[in-house]
Design a protein that fits this description.
2 domains; 5-stranded antiparallel β-sheet; Phytanoyl-CoA hydroxylase-interacting protein; PHYHIP/PHYHIPL; PHYIP/PHIPL_C; glycoprotein; Ig-like_fold
Length: 330
């Protein structure tokens, strides 16, 4: 039987966090003969992958020939924000069950995308299931070392400046390494209604009245839900003044929450005053997208311990947790 031509001109398009479309060129004489495609996909960092294993036994994706471009979805657990290399081979299944195969195409590299809004909505739904009842609070607070606040006073015009969010949380979060903001907490102790005296981030605490950051002129977005191999879970929320750069970034990427009615963080008017509540059973991490003036709050030293084990700096999400993972990737 006449040999098959080698596929060439590989094109990868319509890339999402868990799928892509692939097409290539082959000789016209092969179009009616080819019965199957072999597709070899490898994470880019896996430099020891064997691109020729299909010549003996097809161990990766074997797909019946369909018109190109072909959508690849669900055949692998693709991870978001991950670099992959892909190569293809065409084949004719013969009467004896063996394959006549072409040579391998060139290898093409691509990177999968972030979670889309529909994926974040799935995470949001999972977070809502364990959020618990709502507790009142009155201040947002940020813990850090004394030198951090001294630097803000001396070199940043008494302002806490937004900085780039690290890679903690879900690997597919569109905020990681992209959104600038200032992190705050709002969780309170159940028995006192006050912020806890312990912190993993430093013994100095800046407190600011909740209404300074969260009010009807602020949009609230859901950004992530994760854990770090522990029983407790974290939710990341974004507070962005309406029309700000941060708001415009979030609008296209994150689910928008109703500030007065959601399971995580609310601001509502009761008896003519703004009342604030947070979910009891989640540790909330709040990203405020704009600079924060230290003169709008108070700074003081806390009396508790520095619990480093609770730090979420660059924390990696537990990929095996059924509570906070969705099926499209980790």
């Amino acid at each position: 039987m006449e040999l098959l031509s080698t596929p060439h001109g590989i094109e990868v398009s319509n890339i999402t966090c868990d799928s892509f479309r692939i097409s290539w060129a082959m000789e016209n004489s092969d179009l009616e003969r080819v019965t199957h495609y072999f597709i070899d996909l490898n994470k880019k960092e896996n430099k020891n992958s064997n691109k020729f294993k299909h010549r003996d036994v097809p161990t990766k994706l074997v797909a019946k020939a369909v018109p190109l471009p072909m959508t690849v979805r669900g055949h692998w657990f693709l991870s978001p924000r991950t670099e992959y290399s892909v190569a293809v081979q065409t084949a004719v299944k013969q009467s004896d069950g063996e394959y006549l195969v072409s040579g391998w195409s060139e290898t093409v590299e691509f990177c999968t995308g972030d979670y889309a809004k529909e994926h974040l909505a799935q995470l949001q739904e999972k977070a809502e299931q364990i959020a618990g009842r709502m507790l009142r609070f009155s201040v947002f607070y940020r813990n850090h070392h004394k030198e951090y606040f001294q630097h803000a006073r001396t070199h940043c015009g008494n302002m806490l400046q937004p900085y780039l969010k690290d890679n903690s949380g879900s690997h597919g979060s569109p905020t990681s390494g992209m959104l600038h903001g200032v992190f705050f907490s709002c969780n309170t102790e159940f028995n006192t209604g006050q912020p806890p005296q312990d912190s993993p981030y430093g013994r100095w605490r800046f407190q600011i009245p909740a209404q300074r950051l969260f009010n009807p002129s602020t949009n609230l977005y859901f950004a992530d839900f994760y854990c770090m191999y522990t029983a407790y879970h974290y939710a990341i929320l974004v507070l962005a003044p309406k029309g700000s750069l941060g708001d415009r970034f979030c609008r296209d990427r994150l689910p928008l929450l109703d500030i007065a009615c959601n399971k995580f963080l609310t601001c509502s008017v009761e008896d003519g005053e703004l009342v604030f509540r947070h979910a009891q059973d989640l540790i909330l991490e709040i990203i405020y997208t704009e600079p924060v003036d230290l003169s709008l709050g108070t700074l003081g030293e806390i009396s508790g311990h520095q619990l480093m084990s609770l730090s979420t700096a660059d924390a990696k999400k537990d990929p095996s947790c059924k509570t906070c993972n969705i099926s499209v990737g980790r």
